[in-house]
Design goal:
Elements (H helix, E strand, L loop, with lengths): L4 E4 L5 H12 L3 E4 L4 H6 L9
Parallel strand pairs: 1-2
Length: about 50
């Protein structure tokens, strides 16, 4: 949704930067999370269930 921040993440950070750039170019408030996904889990973020 255009009225909410979209946080992008990936394994190492490169793809999320590109995704955030593309979303931003279409009017979304998108932000790339750094560091990569494994580092976020190690920092205590909850991993989403795949189902």
């Amino acid at each position: 949704p255009c009225n909410k921040i979209i946080y992008c993440h990936c394994l190492s950070g490169g793809r999320c930067l590109e995704a955030a750039r593309i979303l931003s170019s279409h009017g979304y408030d998108a932000r790339a999370l750094q560091p990569g996904y494994p580092d976020l889990i190690d920092a205590g973020f909850t991993q989403a269930d795949s189902e």
